[in-house]
Amino acid sequence: MDTLHTLATLLPLSLTSGINLYATVLVVGLSIRFHWVTDTPANLDVLKAWPIIICSGVLYIVEFVADKIQIVDNIWDIIHTFIRPVGAALIGLAALGSTDPVLGVLGALVAGGIALVSHGGKASARLALNVVSPTENITNIAVSIAEDAATSGLAFLALKYPYAASCIAVLLLGLILFFTPILLRWLFFFLRAVAARFSSIGQHGVQSDPLPPAHMVFLNHQPPELAVRCKAQGIKGANGRNGFVLLWRDCLMFTYDSWGSSRSWSVPRARIPAAYLQRRTLMDVLEIHYYDGKNRDRPVRFVFLKDRSASAAQIEAVLRPQPKEVSI
Q: Mean of the per-residue pLDDT values for the chain?
């Protein structure tokens, strides 16, 4: 088999290994063992050995369960930051090592790098989903099952039609790299959330964060009732950005920095019919519903670290509609 064909097979397998290494090894091993595909790289025959199939199958079952539980899946991804790229590198070395030692090392490095990129994209995306998902673990399970199906399908396609699978892999890598800045922001936010979880112990009071001078311009340099640092989700142009949610006069505002300039978003409090605060393990999510200019219901969410829980609760209390008094 020519080297180009082997490389075309290895590229999508490297991508899927970064998302789910055990599913990739299991699908490849079973496909070769039971002759579901032919004309595969001969050096990948090592994966059809029963010990490897059984081991990858058991680990896949463990991952299948862990990947469906919020927070547990994030911890699992952190652990596999070191495992998935190494596993992809070993697959690359096995596929190319006997052809040319130099090519084998290069293939291992490239395969590990691709797996690291896809792993980073998957881990960061799942983290963002866990933070803002309004349906708790239901969405998490659905996305995890979709990941398993897509990973297994692409791994099988890599053996059956390697060139088509390579085109899909290149497209997916491009999308991951395009969204990398957003995904990295969520990753850093998660790390800050862990630190805030511990620093919040014993903190109960409402605290107003100081606004940068550039943000005070939107308030005519008048102090707000309350300003709290958070991350926005659902605001056009500010989705996933860090900033400050403000109670100012009769408005709810969100100020943030984007591409070297400060910007703001606001909605009158009178157009906010509902506000819900969801308590999570590492952070709190305040979901606001408001009516836009066309009187359509729009949701927007603000994600707070645990050291700002009291401030988030205060904003919810202010925005929550008060029950109307019924006269008798």
A: 88
Reply yes or no on whether the pLDDT at 322 is more than 90. Answer: no
161 and 225 together in one domain: no
User: Which pLDDT score is estimated for 283?
Assistant: 82
282 and 239 within one domain? yes
Query: How many domains are there within the chain?
Result: 2
- What's the pLDDT tens digit per position in 41-86? 888 899 999 999 999 999 999 999 998 888 788 889 989 999 999 9
Task: Dump strand ranges (E) for the chain.
Answer: 226-233, 242-248, 251-258, 261-268, 274-279, 283-291, 297-305
Tokens 């509609």 identify what position?
A: 321
State the CB neighbour count (10 A cutoff) for residue 4.
Answer: 10
Residue 325 resides in a domain? no
CA distances 23 to 55, 89, 198, 206, 247, Å, are 11, 16, 36, 47, 49
Say whether both 239 and 161 belong to one domain.
no
DSSP string, 161-202: SHHHHHHHHHHHHHHHHHTHHHHHHHHHHHHHHHHHHHHTTT
**Can you give the residue range of the structural domain that contains 42?**
3-178
